[in-house]
Design goal:
It is built from 4 helices and no strands. With 87 residues, the chain is mainly alpha-helical. The radius of gyration is 15 Å and the shape is elongated.
Length: 87
């Protein structure tokens, strides 16, 4: 679950960087560095979602940019499932 959480955050953050770059300075160096990172994180979210036990809503991982965060909402928090205090 932790790799999926990391990939989802990287996917959303890299999309934010790409969009801010697009509407502000539009530096090619930022686009060429962040674009492949975003694409890799997007694919990692899809693969990691397919490797987990089937929740309802596995198709949410296909939504570019925020799909990983949407999938994480469908999974129970491991701390809550174990009866611990949510943080």
């Amino acid at each position: 679950m932790r790799p999926l959480r990391i990939a989802a955050v990287v996917e959303a953050a890299s999309l934010a960087v790409l969009l801010v770059n697009l509407v502000t300075v539009h530096l090619e160096a930022i686009s060429s560095a962040t674009g492949p990172l975003h694409g890799t994180a997007y694919l990692a979210v899809i693969v990691l979602t397919l490797m987990t036990p089937p929740p309802s809503g596995r198709w949410w991982s296909l939504v570019p940019g925020i799909g990983g965060l949407l999938v994480l909402r469908k999974f129970p928090d491991p701390k809550e499932a174990a009866g611990g205090q949510p943080s």
